[in-house]
Task: structure prediction
Amino acid sequence: MRNYEAVLIFKPESELLAEGREFVKGLFNDNGCKVVKEEEMGERNLAYEIKKNSKGFYLLYEIESAPENIQAFDKALKLRGEILKYLFVRKE
Result:
């Protein structure tokens, strides 16, 4: 198991945000990941429009996961319309 940080940018609408958060938590749990920390970074203006959105809601996750799970997360998150962007970074 390795430590990762994941930053996800969601559409700021509350119902989409709630759906997206539940999906991400379920995705992490289904793949045997341990969520160490979940932090709301709040709604912020984006530097450029993403999918016709000028604002996004940022969430930071610190997780412990096997490296092969990150590719599965990538495939699953691409299909979700409420997630604008995401980034996984391995922590040292």
Remarks:
- The chain has a mean pLDDT of 89.
- Strands lie at 2-10, 34-50, 53-65, 83-90.
- The two ends are 12 Å apart (CA to CA).
